[in-house]
Amino acid sequence: MRDFQLPGRSPVRATEAMAATSHPLATLAALEMLRSGGNAMDAAVCAAAVQAVVEPQSTGIGGDCFVLYCPNGQGEVLAFNGSGRAPASATAEWYLDRGHVELPESGPHAVTVPGAVDAWCRLLENHGRKGIDAALAPAIRYAEQGYVVQDRVAFDWAESAALLAADEHAARIFLPDGRAPQAGELHRQPQLAETLRIVLRRGRAGFYEGEVADDMVARLRALGGLHALEDFAATQGEYVRPVGTSYRGYDIHQMPPNNQGLTALIMLNVLSGCSLGSLEPNGAERFHLEIEAGRLAYQDRDNFIGDQNHVHVPVEQLMSRSDA
What we know:
It is a single chain. By secondary structure, the protein is mostly helical. The chain folds into two domains: about 25-145 and about 190-240, no CATH class; about 245-320, Gamma-glutamyltranspeptidase, large (L) subunit, C-terminal domain (Serum Albumin, Chain A, Domain 1). It is about 45% helix and about 10% strand. The chain has 15 helices and seven strands. Strand 6 and strand 7 form a beta hairpin. Helix 2 (about 40-55) runs parallel beside helix 5 (about 130-145), helix 5 runs antiparallel to helix 9 and helix 13 packs across helix 14 (about 285-305). It is globular.
């Protein structure tokens, strides 16, 4: 098995279309969507839905969705922020009054209202050709009939076994036979298949209203969460203006804050003043420059990047070459 702690990358070349994901089944679903007449948006949502099934350790319908999209591959780059927001009653004062100085990494207070399904439905309606039925069909099939667990998925899954075991509901689904599935084994998620079918039948409302939302809110409240049905019903992503920079002749686009994509642009602006091409790709000097650029960018991220609806983020200053 490949050592996942070492970097690896392979070039890919194509003549008509290309899809890149972190899982072969998601990539296959995207390519099949393109072959059947779907466009890039159809393929992207289809692949993301498959990943929500076959990569449960990394993503899911309980997560976010950030999109950069260039219709027909030319012209204006569109950005859509489908990130989840905190419950309306989750104020800083509420946490501070209870002794919380930082948000936990797990548990109900780490959970935002999921934005992914809303984003999928909206983006398919605005930019897709094939509709939600075609986009969700492969994901439903894999959830119901099963999928083979890949090496990378098994590696990460085992790392989360103790956390999953602490919750009986999570353990029942993700620790069959009391353990994380191993590479090559078949795993099924029939309940997820049914949830996706509800979204297929009712669209966005099937997830944010009715039995699915009722179940999510009830479980979160039972664990001490502040989520309310109104938080789910009100969830709505938004089109935003992307941020970007130029790097060695290429235009680089990223999502604006609250997304952390600005971090990569800051890093590129720092590195634009360095002669990286003259350095050994895996040499100590190049690694040193890239690491230091990362440290500077991450420091800016931690100090400044947040939700622009609540805090001021000095985007232009952070993007300035003189600041870099």
